[in-house]
From TrEMBL, chains A, B:
InterPro entries: ARMT-1-like_metal-bd_sf (IPR036075), ARMT1-like_metal-bd (IPR002791), At2g17340_3_helix_bundle (IPR035073), ATPase_NBD (IPR043129), Type_II_PanK (IPR004567). GO terms for biological process: coenzyme A biosynthetic process. It comes from Anaeromyces robustus. This is pantothenate kinase. One of its GO terms (cellular component) is cytosol. The lineage of its organism: Eukaryota, Fungi, Fungi incertae sedis, Chytridiomycota, Chytridiomycota incertae sedis. CDD domains: ASKHA_NBD_PanK-II_Pank4. GO terms for molecular function: ATP binding; hydrolase activity; metal ion binding; pantothenate kinase activity. Its EC number is 2.7.1.33. It catalyses: (R)-pantothenate + ATP = (R)-4'-phosphopantothenate + ADP + H(+). It comes from the Eukaryota. Keywords: ATP-binding, Coenzyme A biosynthesis, Cytoplasm, Hydrolase, Kinase, Manganese, Metal-binding, Nickel, Nucleotide-binding, Transferase. Pathway: Cofactor biosynthesis; coenzyme A biosynthesis; CoA from (R)-pantothenate: step 1/5.
Length: 768, 768
């Protein structure tokens, strides 16, 4: 088994984000390749750090994952040699250190040292497993999930923030060739409390003798088709019924493989290999879950994590382990799985390079699925790369700990299909834009756009099979995945050209528009400004219906104003006006959406109006490009141009600092308020009006978000399904004003306990 | 699999032992056949009661054991039909009840009811298992043992009397096709606390697919030859060394069968089936012991019994389970095994016929190995029949709870070999006697003596392989087994003729001898009487050296007196004389030995002397015939003849009741003072002098016995090995007087707690 990733050391320019220089790995910051390796009985797992070579990555670092068969340790060594050799081209380290764990760290110590010319520092296996697990649980969104096929939605991610007190004590059942069970208590103390020799090696070993299948996947495929009751002796086979007195159902397995010996020798050949496969899979899984449960009981532990390469994200294994834990615990405990289950030890070894926890604590970590390890397999939980990103934080004005960005629960298979289809159907539009971007940049290698199309479509295929493979499916996640794929394939701001053109036109129109507005009677202004915001928001290349009109040049600002109707259900502008007239607000934040008419003709005049009411205004724009959304850099440039001809804006921005521009830390058309840039969060501490604009930010996400201060959501239904679901019509504009629920004390104190440690997932994170 | 026992309903006369009529099943007492059946997933186990048809059995009842494959339930039904049919010939029960348990009790309920025309009463499986286990633990000597091949003597029987408080709580791990784990607490409450589907069915099923072996025994044979390290991945294979930090040795199995998958597919055929067998055996055993240990920890239980047909007394299985428990518990807990391990449920079901516990409590149960189930197998722990016998009890004058009848510890393999050889070499003498007995009784079927020879020799072969197969090997056990085999083959009192002849001669001599003694000066009498006892004790057909002399007519009373020398080491007659002269004794018991000169010329004059010192005398003789030992019936007849010519004996026996004859409850040349008849025990409560006579009773056994009153041991070394071991010469007579250690209070109170419940093993018991 070799890696699907290739180490790519081609140089590339890295966007400088000066604000994060102190916490992210900045452009000129160069870390040598760092490697953590966990050599088990069967597999050698490798985690290594690489400098981020992608132009659109915000930071300099990335963690990569791969594995080799221990039997072929030479291949693994060749691979590591290559990594180190490439790194040596730029940094020559006299004493390069390899952090190694697992039994092979001892066994192959000398070999690694000699072949790689590195100092092999052996780390304790159990410690590495737990270091890796703790890192994943705390840093990676949607790492932990439960799995049960008896539920409509088998895979359920653990979303609730877990307090440290709730987390500890826990046990980790690490299933490799053999099994180790480790208990971890609050003080970080860990103890190997047991193990079992009945592990992955046992199942694969027996099945390789008993069936024609010779790879893990073949065996798992076989077991999916099998019926264990043809091989196993069930309680019903013995009792002819339930043994209800002691709670054994007739379908309970009384004896694994118990039907085989009862047959005459000559008939034993007739057992089907798929039935045997399923029987043995159940045997190993049930047994492990029983031992794990007993250990958990004995140590009074409620949380049982399963890790190790045995699981490999396979539904049948996870379901079986889950079933076991449910069965033995009578439903009181759920088995917890980890998406990076196989890499705990290697990740732990890698992290030992960073003995200094503070260094880790300064960074955020976010998963990037563009090159998910299992994109070609049937596995349901994919392992992506982990990008090292600036630390993000919770938006301080969210009311509830139960905040969840996504408006729509895509657990309905029909809805899942609809959205995946939608993204699939319209993929070609993105490809066209990407091609044209290549063209504009005089790049002739059109393979990249093909790769982008291929890779995104492959992900969509994975999601068709297992919608929650990358965390819970949402429109937001589909959008982010698309952006990630674009960036991973080397595309920059593919709407650059469109945005430039629209900006130019809009800025030409703006002076006149401002004059008209200033001339309106005071009591009519607000209504017109809101109409303009909604009309401007029509200029959305990300909305498929609108994209066509825009491409054909069928839309201008005036036609947009006619097209957009006021929503009957979500339009309470008068309430907002009343609050505004009472001079209740001192500082507003506006999460802005598209470039062009939207920002220039819609938002800037509206912000100018708020400023005129003595309200400070923060404009919060994306850090990274995404469709035709206005980026922080775009916005700075626009505002600077506006200051040149509009005094109120110039005064507010340049003289009084009452108009401010911040970046959100995001690169998504949606808005996850659990992860905004720390600077924005800080600037918003005393905000008393939150305004969110656009379909992605105020409909797909945050439609139900509640704030501790008043809020206003402005958007247009540009998707029929969304309109229908929320009870609107196509091209209805919403103006949804909601009073804040001011229970700051509770909301804040509760959050501050946990969000810093738990929820600082990265800017590319589409989940947390 | 069919039974090795055949149900034998041929009628025969049953010895009437009037004294036990009330507690044993007397001659005319007729119980219908009672059957308990436990139908598991693979095996149907049957326990049934049968009327004892053997002439020399003391009582009317016997429990028999057999099993069938559940797959062939028809064979089992045929067998039961036969039993019931035979029984119907004598007792016609309108509503015959079959007690059934196990899953099949439900599944085959209708079938059993229709085919056997019985009322099938289904009993709860877990309850039956525990009822059976408790019965065995409490009633059957040497039922429970530990096993560890790392000890010089792997099989160690649990001899210490276990208080109820120590016994409970315990868990039973019942390993059949699948596994049930049951916890039993003091109040008799039982709970199935868990189980496992990895049981016997799993091992046999997998091995039947993976090896050419197709029977249990073939598989176990294979596994004995195998090396699991060729198949299993050991800690050392991964680490290259111990993983000492967490206490894993390099030889610990990290992954069962973990080396298989690492090989290339084409090389996997090369794994040896014996190695795979051993690996899987370890896998199942280690896993079960781990689960059992975890359950024991969880429930704070110290005693773990393993039962069920998986174990089948096979050393490799027991050793592996034991090793597992030792390993997981770090040596704090030992696995406990049961000789009747496979019959717990069936026995429990059988006992449900006797809902009335009082009825059970009145009886003693003793194992009889003559038809041990496994005489032809390599199994080490044989399961015999269980005879229902009168209740026996502890001899009340024993000093210590640590009393053990056997003088010689036969754990030395050389000593074991010597005694087995001795019994083997001299077997022909018994066969000759048996033939001559057949002849005297005009019985011409000499096959019986051949069968006796065959069966005893077979047992000796089993014991050569596994000396402790039937409980700890001792001279006593070899002697009893020989007697049991004789009786089982239908032989009665084969020394009847010899005894009659010797009695006649001795009685002719007695009057004259008594006159001579009476004429002696008072201070010379005792010495002469003791000389006579020792000379008389030479007339022992059970002692091989003497047997030859006796057969050739080379020995008479006078020549015997010359032959017997006083032991230098063990002859303190003067001390006894001093105590006697102080008139310290009021009641003596003499455990007598041989018929003929021994009892008539040795013991009777000595008893007469004690009577003359105003000491009441109890003569305690065997209940059942055994070599030329005087039986209770023999002794009654002798005393009655003596009363006809000797006034002191007549007065003491017939008028004042100062001379009494009791039976011991035994049929052995040895004496186990933990099991004497209740009447004798009661009569001895106020005895202040215990006299034990003979090599079997005072040398092979009881040589080291200590009493709370004074005691006198009288015997002659008639075996060179015994003489050498104890430090004497051949034909040395010993007269060993020991002062009692009068700590009655403690000794009695301690005993009364336990001996009634625990140690009432039967008269044929050679162990307890």
């Amino acid at each position: 088994m070799s890696s699907r990733f290739t180490f790519n050391a081609t140089d590339a320019h890295i966007i400088e984000l000066s604000k994060y220089r102190q916490i992210a790995f900045p452009k000129n910051y160069r870390k040598p390749v760092q490697i953590g390796i966990d050599i088990g009985g069967s597999l050698a797992k490798v985690v290594w750090y690489s400098q981020n070579t992608n132009s659109y990555a915000a930071t300099g670092g990335r963690l990569n994952f791969t594995k080799f068969e221990t039997e072929n340790i030479d291949k693994c060594i060749e691979f590591l040699k290559e990594i180190i050799k490439k790194d040596n081209e730029t940094i020559n380290l006299p004493h390069r250190v390899l952090k190694a764990t697992g039994g092979g760290a001892h066994k192959f110590n000398k070999l690694l040292n000699e072949e790689l010319n590195v100092i092999v520092e052996t780390e304790d296996e159990m410690e590495c497993l737990i270091t890796g697990l703790n890192f994943l649980v705390h840093k990676i969104p949607y790492e932990v999930f439960t799995y049960s096929e008896s539920e409509a939605e088998p895979m359920v991610f653990e979303e609730k923030v877990i307090d440290e007190e709730e987390l500890y004590p826990y046990i980790l059942v690490n299933i490799g060739s053999g099994v180790s069970i480790i208990k971890v208590t609050e003080d970080g103390k860990l103890e190997r409390i047991g193990g079992s020799s009945l592990g992955g090696g046992t199942l694969w070993g027996l099945l390789s003798l008993l069936t024609s299948a010779q790879t893990f996947d073949e065996m798992l495929e076989l077991s999916k088709k099998g019926k264990n009751e043809n091989v196993d002796m069930l309680v019903g086979d013995i009792y002819g019924e339930d043994y209800s007195k002691i709670g054994l159902k007739s379908s309970t397995i009384a004896s694994s493989c118990g039907k085989i010996f009862k047959k005459k020798p000559e008939e034993r050949k007739e057992f089907k290999e798929e039935d045997i496969s399923r029987s043995l899979l159940y045997m190993i899984s049930n047994n492990l879950s029983q031992i794990a449960y007993l250990m958990a009981q004995l140590h009074q532990v409620k949380r049982i994590y399963f890790g190790g390469c045995f699981i490999r994200g396979h539904p049948v294994i996870m379901n079986s382990l889950s079933f076991g834990i449910r069965f033995w615990s009578k439903g009181t405990i759920k088995a917890l799985f980890l998406r990076h289950e196989g890499y705990l030890g290697a990740l732990g070894a890698f992290l030992k390079h960073h003995g200094n926890i503070q260094e880790q604590e300064l960074l955020g970590f976010s998963e990037n699925f563009t090159k998910a390890e299992r994109i070609n397999t049937t596995a349901i939980n994919a392992v992506g790369l982990i990008d090292i990103v600036p630390k993000l934080t919770y938006f301080p004005l969210i009311l509830s700990d139960e905040y969840h960005p996504d408006t729509f629960d895509l657990s309905d298979p029909e809805l899942q299909k609809y959205w995946i289809d939608t993204f699939d159907k319209n993929l070609h539009k993105m490809v066209d834009m990407a091609l044209s971007w290549l063209h504009t940049h005089f790049l002739t290698n059109t393979d990249n756009s093909k790769s982008f199309e291929d890779i995104y479509r492959k992900h969509l295929q994975v999601l068709r099979r297992e919608p929650n493979a990358y965390g819970p499916l949402s429109v937001r996640s589909l959008l982010i995945l698309r952006e990630q794929c674009l960036h991973e394939m080397g595309f920059g701001d593919i709407f650059e050209h469109v945005k430039q053109e629209e900006k130019r036109t809009a800025l030409e129109t703006l002076p006149n528009l401002l004059k008209k507005i200033d001339a309106l009677p005071e009591n009519e202004k607000l209504s017109v400004l809101i109409d303009n915001v909604l009309a401007g928001n029509m200029f959305d290349w990300g909305a498929n219906e609108v994209h066509n009109m825009l491409q054909k040049g069928e839309l201008n600002f005036d036609s947009a104003k006619i097209k957009v109707k006021k929503s009957e259900k979500y339009f309470n502008l008068n309430e907002f006006r009343e609050s505004l007239e009472l001079n209740q607000y001192h500082k507003a934040v506006i999460f802005v959406d598209n470039s062009g008419a939207d920002i220039v003709l819609g938002i800037i005049p509206f912000a100018r109006y708020l400023l005129s009411h003595n309200i400070d205004v923060i404009l919060a724009a994306n850090s990274l490009p995404c469709v035709n959304d206005v980026t922080y850099n775009d916005l700075i440039s626009i505002i600077e141009q506006v200051t040149s001809f509009d005094k109120p804006i110039n005064d507010a921005y340049n003289i009084y600092g009452k108009l401010m521009v911040y970046e959100t830390g995001s690169g998504s058309p949606c808005l996850d308020l659990r992860n905004v840039s720390c600077d924005l969060a800080e600037a918003c501490e005393n905000v008393d009006l939150v305004i969110i604009e656009g379909m992605g930010r105020a409909m797909h996400t945050n439609f139900h978000a509640k704030f501790i201060c008043d809020s206003l959501k402005l958007a247009v239904f540009k998707n029929a399904s969304v309109a229908k679901t929320l009870g609107g019509n196509m091209y209805d504009g919403i103006c949804l004003f909601e009073k804040g629920e001011k229970i700051i004390g509770i909301a804040k104190s509760k959050r501050s306990n946990t969000f810093n440690e738990i929820l600082e997932a990265g800017r590319f994170s589409f989940s947390c």
